[in-house]
């Protein structure tokens, strides 16, 4: 295949101060939940992206000093020279494939509660720390000596980054997460000295840090500035016009500008609330303020859109975080003309949840993400098969499709038996719900890849029982039959069925997705799942003209989505749709004409009128075939069956990312010895004990 000439512009080199990016694909800094705890895993992950063609591959934010740590979040650290080898390993992995290595120096100030170092946080003005949770910590106001110290610490961090081998070093002023941003923003900076008040004064520290960094390392390393164009708060916050005036004061000092929105939740919105290129209106015009190259982001997965924003003069380099996670080889596939092989980001932000849960990054589309070093998985390369034994995959949801896809690429003969006439399972169904259309990419990518594999056959309308499985005689059988939503209300609150009177109209999300629940005008949705489904179903029914009451035992709507940075967007949408929200309510019983609820704190009960109730609580595996096969295990040998595995939601319901991971894991481990659980099945970093 050859590359379409329309995309040649994306492969032009770009000068960035003293260094040159080989193309316009730029992996902007992004978190990963591994950081200083799992440095080898981070290094391998960044190296795979360089291998995949990203001209610049950056770290996440790197703490420069012990006086500002963001515990419990796990990022990188460059507190002293002992941290250099860890970071040098990352730079080395990136350089192996000819890419530039970028490092984002960070001092968080108000965003760092310092739970690890127990130092008093510092800020331009002493306010309560501005963290993602209501941490009971306040910062103190910095004096002139503090400012001089931070300038020295920042310069030392830049020199260490250079010593570690990085080609590009950030002065981080973005997202509302950096102390520099706090100096820039009027709402955080109430100073009356030369670092506060006027726009020029608030920019002073940024100018000093940019100049310090350039003087320290600028002969060999490019200096980048990550800068927020708008906080989307109106007059209360930093707005684009003021941001442009600030840029004008320092426009020519850095070698590159990386423009973002603040806060992080605005910069990385889920696809449910923002489409591709959602920041282009904010990028418009800023490139004219500087002669230096500009990076901008917008969850770009389309090469046409990427080429367009370069031709329009919005950016010089296409910044990507989430698309580079979903497909580390996105640039290489565009270069080779293999657009059908691009694994497009679905914008679900399950990757972001790794940072919020302090766990290794994961991706719904790319199950190898975070496992490059730990398990040796690669997003594009698969180990060849070890036997000629064919595999029967029963169920074509996300787990089954990924298992078949990975097994096929390993070279195994695979048959997929799907009981319906549609591939995708829960992904196909859920992608038809409001705001989730992009999630269909999980199905589409795998279906397209499987179609290219002659050794994988798909059979529709193929609901199988145990006798059918025995007749087919496949030595390896994997059950990926999925799960279904419970109708009895069992979940976190209720571990036994909810008491219910006869005749109560009770529905599940499955009913809704099947087009059911048409009766009744007033609908109660009780959400004990706390992820996206309850809010999505409420939105769907409200848009259908129903009077919807959303109730949950949690203190807010879709509580777990704080980890995907969309909770407040979900709650805002439900409010705008006129949905009545009743939080902190347990479901006591279902009654004719409604339900009885109780306050989770006081136990005070109330009756709520409703024509029907939708229970969004938990799911249970579709286990009929598994149960039947296990009951007839003595017949396996005669039928030629050596092994029956259960994966994904059919084993234990979880996220789509869990299901896809389960499919890849089955394919990777199909011929491995059965684990006994007596040893750790992946590599991990072991801390070295220092002498007393």
Q: What is the CA-based Rg, rounded?
A: 27 Å
Largest sheet: 8 strands, parallel, barrel
Number of strands: 28
Query: How much of the residues is beta strand, in percent?
Result: 15-25%
Secondary-structure content class: alpha/beta
Tally of contiguous helical segments: 22
- The geometry reads as globular
The portion of residues assigned to helices is 25-40%
Spatial arrangement of strands, main beta sheet? 3-4-6-9-10-11-12-13
Mean pLDDT level: 97
* N- to C-terminal distance: 61 Å
In the predicted model, the low-confidence regions spanning at least 5 consecutive residues are: none
Overview of this structure, please?
It is built from 22 helices and 28 strands. The protein has 692 residues and is of the alpha/beta class. The strands form 7 sheets. Strands 3-4-6-9-10-11-12-13 form an 8-stranded parallel beta barrel, surrounded by 5 helices. A 5-stranded parallel beta sheet has the order 16-15-14-17-28, with helices on both faces. It is globular and about 80 Å long. The model has no long low-confidence stretch (mean pLDDT 97).
Task: Briefly summarize what is shown.
By secondary structure, the protein is of the alpha/beta class. It is built from 22 helices and 28 strands. The protein is 29% helix and 17% strand.
